[in-house]
Amino acid sequence: MKDKNNIIRNPIDAAFLMEVKNIVERGRQQAYASVSQLMIETYWKIGERIVLQEQKGADRAEYGTQLISQLSEELTRTYGKGFSKRNLQYFRSFYLTFSDLEIVHTRVHNLSWSHIRTVLRVDDITAARWYMLTASQEMWSVRTLDRNISTQYYERHFKQPQLVENTKNDNKIDKLEILKSPIMAEFLGFRQIYI
Question: What's the pTM?
């Protein structure tokens, strides 16, 4: 019987081993991305179905319906706590904010549900769409996205009127440009707004 500490190993070429490990890692990443995309699509479709049921062909939903509460109870009983009333409200909001599933597929394919839920805190639909698209393009982590929303990155860059008068000297440095950086805003102690 061989001692566990004296196990004889066949020598494996380090490059070969690294290549096989990379194949496994890529496969895992693709599997995770696929599951994440299917989850996002499922949540979007649930949101769409809730809106259609609420509105029943009308432009707006009737107030006072208990649809989401009742649906949450049934889905939680069958599938678990991932279908809380709050989550169903997120699914509904997701559909209302991004009503074209093809746009979700093509433009934000690399984001997780945590990214989307973070963006749904933003009341302004234009800003929410900008945050979603930019987070996807720039590969922002959920933490970076949250920080940029909390420090009003979009609002500071695109909604503020010009605070410095334009002069004929195009080389003049905008002294307020530094305030556009979320890191600088945090350092300077600007209050974070949670929506």
Answer: 0.68
